[in-house]
Amino acid sequence: MEVKRKLAERRLYQPISGPFHVDYAPDEHTVLAENPPRFTWMAAQQEDDNAYLMQISVGSSFEEEETMTFAPLPYNFFTPGRVLQPGEYYWRYALLVDQPVQQDSEAEAYVSQGKQGSEAKGHASQRKQGEMSAWSEVRRFTVPVGLPETPLPSRGERYISTDTSHPRLWLGESGLQALADAIASDATYCGWDVFMAKSVEPWANREPIREPQPYPENKRVAPLWRQMYIDCQEVLYAIRHLSIGGRVLRDERLLEAAKTWLLHVAAWDTEGTTSRDYNDEAAFRVAAALAWGYDWLHDELNSEEQEMVRRSLLRRTEQVAQHVMVRSKIHHVPYDSHAVRSLSSVLVPCCMALLHEEQQAAEWLDYAIDYYACLYSPWGGSDGGWAEGPMYWTTGMAYVTEAMNLLRNYAGIDFFRRPFFQRTGDFPLYVYPPDARRASFGDQSTLGDPVNLKTGYLVRQLAGVTGNRWYQWYFERVRQSDPGTEGAFYNYGWWDFNFDDLVYRHDYPQVEEESPVDMEPLKWFRDVGWVAMHHRMDDPDEHVMLLLKSSRYGSISHSHADQNSFTLHAFGEPLAADTGYYIAHGSSFHREWRRQTRSKNNLLIGGTGQYAENNKVLNMAATGQIKEAYWRDGDGYVRAVATDAYASTVPHVKRVVREIHFLQSSYFVIVDHIDLEKPDSVQWLFHALHPLQLKGQSFRLNGNKAGLEGTFVYASSGELSLSQTDQFAEVDPAEYEGLERHYHLTAETRPASSHRIVTLLVPYKIEEPKYVPYFIDDQDHGIHLYFTDNGVTKKIEVSKTY
């Protein structure tokens, strides 16, 4: 059916994309990672009340027989439902003027400048004369051969074969029966016995949790906020686990307990203390609890009970959808961490439970699916990195992998085939290895503890998806090193490992582990600006790791003012450490220490660090960049630039560059280049868990398993002044009363307009102290430094300052 439109006189507004907004992509500079490409553009208007039309053609003139036309597209991003043949293409879009958004399909339609489509007919409401704006700028892109094929079914096709009965979350009717049969034959099947004993039965005789009370004077208090969301997490555990246990076993006792919990929570005030605007973490958990309860107990409820639960569930889902799609507009500005997470924690399970019953559920679920296909993840790219760091990778992945599994099982949409999900297991493997502590970046509620158990479980999930045996090895090591933490708030308040284990073992085959003996010694996550260098990760007693960050994401969200920072972990112990404590987000420890450059193994200029306050424009502008990173002839090298990170706080900065050499997998040489418009001092910072022994131009650290010899080999402004303290500057002492002190080295230069600082770091086993001899040749225009270890001499050249 043709859909003819006449070209309107209306000009198409094409705003220039800023650092917070989605970009115009793809273009001639885009290196595609999957097929079909993902198309994004800046919205033509602030409100999303008109649809778009988009064309893809093999020629820039968009001849009818060479052009595909897609309309109506409700938002400024789109993933086609077909794979493109390798070659060169052009694309453009227009706004459909006064055309209400149609939520059910992206029809291939005919317009006066395009061809008649053959894949979709469109609804009657679309088959009317309409107008469109002027066309956008035409952009060119190239589809190379051999890309992963990841088309997305259109909105009109996604749910055609989905079941209208319940349950739908995790298992359908046939899957439920198969699980019940398997358990009847073997009560230990997939860990069912453990799930029942530890995650179902404890809730059967417990009184339902009362509705959380308001904060005193409705002012948020961190301990009460945390207790509120933990209470609501327990609500999720009780309803979900009792419902599953009761349905699988047909146990009336468990079913009755599940109904009691469900109806109790459905009666809570949807506009009260567990609403999205009052406490979003509590709201997410209550909405998910209602979704699982409504879905799994649907056939156990009478019509009045169904209506009561459905009404509460719909309103709570609407609150989240309204925030995500209308207020936060993460399709315009994708960096709202909680809003993006709520796609998976709320919209997917809740909309799946309501699908075929509430019209809005399909609209909201379509939005989430389209977002996952095109814009996810805003915190990384095809390398699989995560700019906010491994702890927020864990939080994000925990919910998104659960949502991916729900969608795959119910609708057959498999996002795990996307390059990001195929590779993102590499991120924790390289930057958060199983034996490392205090060796990463970003906000971390587990700071100081072993690698979080949930991180291990998630990497196992990715082992099941990809078959990667190193990922399975990671899981096994983490499970060994982090036992007994299931009850810690950062685990118990977020996930239940017995449920995780049941679902994974049911859905995925066991993958055999393999030690990462042949892993890359240097891993560069270009998408987020992190570089990890490793020696012998397979053996904690021999493992040496240095991690450096210099990211285009600056200090936005849960990232810190730490561009060009490094951490060093060796022989089982953090040496150049990420110090301090996680008290609470927004505490003085968080604001004045953890987020600040002064807490990092980095540089201050005139006592001032990079921008770390709460202006998001300046956060996003305070960026760094990895310019070069490679492993060659047994040595690693990385060069990073952090000039922009200091630009707003040190206006006279011209250049800040850090080079790190990892030589012979044994020692490190760090070369810092700082150029300024006027003379100023530089403070070279190093942080440790143990006291440092200072002597002349060197310092020594002796820990429990490992030590480190540090030497300032060369400083262009003359000898440095070394000092250390065990204080956390600017932090309220009450927040760390009774906690172990950490130690902070400052090596300060004399004022100068240009600085070159060369630092030698030699890690060693505590029972095998060592040093690396060196000498300097400065006879010409450069400084030539020679370092010798195990009879092998390496040369590094540094330019002089004049």
Quick tags:
single chain; 802 residues; alpha+beta; eight-stranded antiparallel sheet; six-stranded mixed sheet; 18 helices; 28 strands; 30% helix; 22% strand; globular; Oligosacch_lyase
Binned strand content? 15-25%
Oligomer kind? single chain
- Broad shape: globular
Helix content: 25-40%
Unreliable runs, pLDDT <50, ≥5 residues? 109-129
Rg over CA atoms: 28 Å
The profile of the biggest β sheet is: 8 strands, antiparallel
Distance between the termini: 74 Å
User: Main sheet: which strands, in order across?
Assistant: 15-16-17-18-25-22-21-20
Region (Disordered): 107-133
Domain Heparinase II/III-like C-terminal: 520-757
Pfam families: DUF4962, Hepar_II_III_C
Subcellular location: Cell envelope
3D architecture notes:
- There is one protein chain.
- This protein is α+β, with helices and mostly antiparallel strands and 802 residues long.
- Helices cover 30% and strands 22% of the residues.
- A hairpin with a 2-residue loop joins β12 (565-570) and β13.
- The protein is globular and about 85 Å long.
- It is built from 18 helices and 28 strands.
- The strands form six sheets. It has an eight-stranded antiparallel sheet. Strands 1, 3, 4, 6, 7 and 8 form a six-stranded mixed sheet that branches.
- The protein starts with a strand and ends with a strand.
